[in-house]
Amino acid sequence: MNKRILPIAFLLCLLLAGSCKEETYVYPNVITEFIDIQTDESGTITHLVADNGKRYAVQPREGLNGLHADTIYRTVSIYQFLTEKTNSSEAEVMLYSSKIVISPYPAKASEWKDSIYTDPVDIQSIWLSGNYLNLIAEVKRKDQTHAFHFIEDSISTDSQGVRTLYLRLFHNSNQDYEAFTNLTYLSAPLRNYQDTLRTGDKICFRIHTYKEGQTYREFTY
Q1: Check: CATH 1.20.140.150 for 107-220?
Q2: Where in the chain is the domain with CATH 2.40.50.500?
Q3: H-helix or E-strand containing 138?
């Protein structure tokens, strides 16, 4: 009896292996990054704009509409290159998904009319790229809505003429219970400082963290 069961079991394994091989899906070579998406007059996504200024046409498909017209959104997007740029056409990409990033323009502390909350987060990564200061924050939360913003505290100039922009992360956790950690994506737009900051100036970003307390990260503009 056992001698008959073993060959049948072995055949079943082969069939399952063959079935799995036929259903194997090869994932495309995709890129995941912080990037701007741009809509046209109908509110449909037409382009991705990278932090280095490069523009990519988005291949049309269903599900790219329903946004505000002629608007740039800051996102974390997953996309795949389809064609390279030529003299007669733009580079084209397939956009698979986009997640809106929290990206308000910094507000001056002197004009902020409410309390400036700096509830703690932890830093997974933070970097300067193009016209943005990007942050992936580890936020402890449960079921309350958290509010985020960027606060401009001041701009100073040292004896060498180097200017420093002091920014701070606003975070109001609404006294949320710290049940689990969630990643939150943020980008501080720096376009409004293009006439104020020069190459070589500094950006000092202050943030309240669990691991380091009140701390900061400094970047060269």
Answers
A1: no
A2: 31-100
A3: strand 132-141
Closest alpha carbon to 156 in 167, 146, 148: 167
Q: pLDDT, tens digit, for every residue of 91-142?
A: 999 999 999 999 999 999 999 999 999 999 999 999 999 999 999 999 999 9
Quick: pLDDT tens for 175-218.
999 999 999 999 999 999 999 999 999 999 999 999 999 999 99
Q: Which residues of 20-40 are buried (b: 16+ CB within 10 A; e: fewer)?
A: eeeeeeeeeeeeeebbbbbbe
Say how many C-beta atoms besides its own lie within 10 A of residue 77's C-beta. 24
Where along the chain do the CATH 2.60.40.2370 domains lie?
107-220
Decide if 132 contacts 34 (C-beta within 8 A). yes
- How far is it, in rounded angstroms, from Cα 33 to Cα 101? 11
Beta strands in 25-71 (DSSP E): 31-39, 45-49, 55-58
Question: Taking the mean position of all CA atoms in its chain, how far away is CA 202?
Answer: 22
CATH number attached to the domain at 31-100: 2.40.50.500
Taking a C-beta distance cutoff of 8 angstroms, is the pair 117, 201 a contact? no
Q: What whole-number distance in Å separates Cα of residue 59 and Cα of residue 79?
A: 10
DSSP 3-state percent helix, strand, coil across the chain (nearest 5): 10, 50, 40
pLDDT of residue 23: 60
Residue 102, both tokens: 């929290």
